[in-house]
Amino acid sequence: MLPTENKAAQSITQVISASSLGTLIEWYDFYIFGSLAVIIGQQLFPSDAGASALINTLAIFAAGFIVRPFGALVFGRLGDLIGRKYTFLLTLVLMGGSTFLIGLIPSYSSIGYAAPILVLILRLVQGLALGGEYGGAATYVAEHAPAGKRGYYTSWIQTTATLGLFLSLGVIVLTKNLLGAGTFADWGWRIPFLVSILLVGVSIYIRMKMHESPVFTKLKAEGKVSANPLKESFQKRANFKMVLLALFGATMGQGVVWYTGQFYAQSFLENTCKLDFNESRYILLWAILFATPFFVIFGSWSDKVGRKWIMLTGMALGVLFYRPIYQYFLDATNVREMEATQLLSTSEPVVERVLIKDTKDSLITTTVTKTLRNGMTYKESGIVTITDDVLAPVPAPQTQIRDITLSGSTYLMVIALVFFQVLLVTMVYGPIAAFLVELFPTQIRYTSMSLPYHIGNGVFGGLVPFIATLVSSFSGSTPLSGLWYPIGIAALSLVIGAVYIDNRIDRTVTD
Asked: Which of 14, 9, 467 is nearest to 267 (CA)?
């Protein structure tokens, strides 16, 4: 290899590493909230809020996604005016600071409804910052990448979202195992938020050493920087048409596939199928570990065959297979039906009595652990409220199933099905950065690509856990009813993309 070639190779490697590390940390910050939604809901809302605490917490989580398009406009404009480097350095500081402060917010028992309000404000700041981060990192890498390899190089940025989720799950599981379930639910859940400040500090140090994109530097030297990126992006008919096409033909479908495979899958397994906390996260960790290399594989492949059909194939497979996959999850965890023929043993009951606040009533929980012949275990709790009126009849206990652990073959099958969903994520997400960068000219690229990306992902995709959970809670719905939302959005995007997106390869990024 010639010295100049070696220097160039080192340069692009450094660019990718610096951009990817910061983006990974931002996604880590964003994901730990979603992964801990159940516990956070218990901390932010009254103890008797029940299922509404989870729905309200998911709504706060979704709020961060909804404001991402506004962050795309604000920081996209800055990126096209002053440069890529300093803009997504700023977004990193805002994101990391907000995450750290969430770890310090007192619980509902200490400050009442001020707790969820403060967390909501910080989530909005997170969403705004993330709205500016991705466009900057993807644009920065693409403008350094040589022709013919943009899909390959930008796909490394795409891995950071999943690796950020992987890192967040790893820190959560490690912290919970070290502290114990009780301590983790009490205050230990704050640790993953607090340690993120150390990761952010390292990333800021690395990003400070980065140089501005050579394409943007050349544009600035020639005096061709856009005076009004927002106006040029959305008032010029030809460019606005590309923004709409990118949204409805690509990022909208990509967003719902992404959040179904990596968020709703975990939420469904834990909250609907009642899997054990660690069990659901180990499943997702294994699936992510095996699937992550395919971001680079599909990104690189898109340099050879084009971006379009790889992304649309991922959407089509989601439309076809989501309902059968989630039906299997329900069938595989239907321990009520299995225990009639497969019950092997039942443990001695563990009885817990708790006085209900401000009353003389007691809440008595009797829990047994059951084991099936196929190796599955689960806890069955009978919950009954005893009034202070000794003459009142004792009501029949309400029974609940929780903390299901799967048997070997079923466990592997669930991992395989979650892996398949994450594989679809790599198909739609691996080529998307190169696809978006190549649609727009340099002087308005940051603004133009950021908006459709964050509407597609932040609004349509980010709302998947909330809308799907909400729809499934409606009267007359089934546990699978929520899937119609991602299936419908992916199908619509599939049709629009198939008809209107072309499959040209290696568009220029220097216009």
From this structure: 467
